Amino acid sequence: MEQEGRSLEDMHMLLYRAYHAQTNYLRPRMARLGLGPGQPKLLAYLAVNGTSTQHEMAAYFEVDDAAISRMLDLLLQAGFVRTGRGRDRRTKAVELTAGGHDALAAWDDICDGEQSAMLAGLTAEERATLAGLLERIHANLAAASACASRGPAAARRAAVPARDTTPEEARDE
Hints:
The protein has eight helices and three strands. It is mostly helical and 173 residues long. A three-stranded antiparallel beta sheet has the order 1-3-2. The radius of gyration is 20 Å and the shape is globular.
C-alpha cells in the first residue's frame, strides 16, 4: 500500500508551492498598480494580439468566457481597456487604452524583477531546460484534460513524448 499523504511531496505540490510563492511576490505589486488577479495577463494579451474578443482571450488562457468578462469589467472601470462593437452584435472588441499600456509597462518591469528573483542561481542552460519542461507539463495536462472523457489510456497516448534534455556537450561524452 502506498503512503497516505504522499501528495504532500509530489510534483503537484512542488508546482503548487512555486506558484504560491510567485503569487505572494506579485500580488502586492499588482495591487499597487490597481490591478487584480488575472488582469495583467489580459493587458499583455491585448498588447501582443491587438484588439480581441473576450472569447479569443478565454480560449488562449483556457478559462471560461465568464471569468474573462469579470476581469474585463474591472479593467474597463479602471480605464485600462475600452470596448467597441465586434464583428457582430453579440461580440465586443476589447483594446488597451493609454492607461492600459502604462500599467502593462509597469507590470512588465515588475515581472522582470520577479523573474530575476525566481531564476537566481540557474544557468542559461538550466533556464532553457526548465522552460522546455514546463511547456511539456502544460501540453501533457492539456492533452490529459482533452482526453478525460475517452478514458485514462487515451490520455497516456496523447502525452508529449520525452525529449533528451541533456546538454549537447554532455551527450557527446
